[in-house]
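Annotated sample (chain length 375).
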Amino acid sequence: MSKKAMVAMSGGVDSSVAASILLDQGFEVCGVTLKLFSNSDIDITDSSRTCCSLEDVEDARRVAYKLGFEHYVFNFGTHFQNTVMERFVCEYLDGRTPNPCIDCNRFIKFGKLIDRADLMGQDYIATGHYARIKYNTETGRYELLKAKDRSKDQTYVLYSLTQSELSRTLLPLGDMLKSEVREYAQHHGLVNAEKPDSQDICFVSDGDYARFIEFTTGKKSEPGDFVDTEGNVLGRHKGIIHYTIGQRRGIGISFNGRKYVVDKDAKTNTVVLGDETDLYKNGFIADNVNWISIEQLNEPMAVAVKTRYSQIEAPATIYSGKNGIVSVVFDEPQRAVTPGQAAVFYDGDKVVGGGTILKSTDFDFTRRIATPTRK
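Output written by the structure step:
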C-alpha cells in the first residue's frame, strides 16, 4: 500500500513540482492551498499581489487536476492572524525586527498542517522548500541539511522544525537546482513553469511595514528622539517602526558624514544613530532555541552562524546559559546583528539549531571560557 502525502501548494512552480515528483515516486498525493488572509485584512486592492490570491489557488488547482489528484483549500486565517500577523506587529512596536516567514513555518505549515494531515489520514506533509532531511542512525535524530542549490537554500527559515515534524516532512526539491525545477515543470506541461518567485512578506506585499502596522493598529506611529550613542538628542524621528538596525537612508536629517541606525529603544521611544563602526559587535544572546542535530548543548561548540536570510555564515562559538539562553561569540565582529531576527547555527551543511536574537553585545574576552578548536 502506497504512502499518503499532503502537499502544501502555494500555486507556484516549486510546490507543484514537489507534488509531481512524489507522484513519480509512488506516493498517493493530495494538494492543499492555505487561505491565510483576505486582501481587505491588509489594505491591498490588487488581488494578484499576495500569495493567497485567487490566481494562486486556481494555479494550484489546475496543476492538481492535470496530475490527477485531489486539491483542497484550508482556511487558517484566524490562526495565521493570531500567531503570525499580530506577533509581527507586536515585535515591531517593541523595537524588534521579526521574521514572519519563520513563524508561519512554525505555527502554520509544519504545525497546523500536520494536525490537519492527521485528521485526513495522511502519512506525510510535503513542501517546495529547498532543503534536505536525513535520519542519522548513529545519533537517532533527524537532520536538516542545506539544499543542493545553495542560492535557494531555505534551511534558515526551517530551523524551528522539531524532530516529530522532520519525521513527517518530505522536501522533494532538496537535491535539485532551481533551473532543474523549471525544466521539470516545462517538460511536464505545468501551467506555472515560468511563474515568478514570491519575494516579499506575503501580507506586506509592497514592503512598507510601517504602513501595514499603522493600518492594522489604527494608530499613527508616535514620533520621538534620535539620539547619539551618548544619549544626546540629534533630532526627531517619525516612529520606531520606520527604522531597522543598519539603516542609513530615509533617516530624514543630515549630518557631516554617514550615520546609521545602531539601536532602538521602545520604552523611551528613541532611535540611536551612530557610525558604521558602532554596528559591529562580537556576539549576541539568543533564546527560544530549537536544537536539531543535537539534543542539547552541553559544552561550547564551534559553528557557523547566519543572522539574516541572505547572509553568508560567520564562524562563532556557542555557549549554553541559564533558562535555555545561548551566548554566541563571533571569531570576528559582525555588522548589524538585529534583535528579533533568527540566528541559525551550522556545522557544515548540517543545521545544529537556531533561536531568536535577544540582543547584540560585546563580550568581555578576558572572562571568556575556553573555545573549542575549530576544525
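Annotation: The longest strand covers residues 280-291.
Annotation: The helical segments are 13-24, 54-67, 77-93, 100-119, 163-167, 178-187, 209-217.
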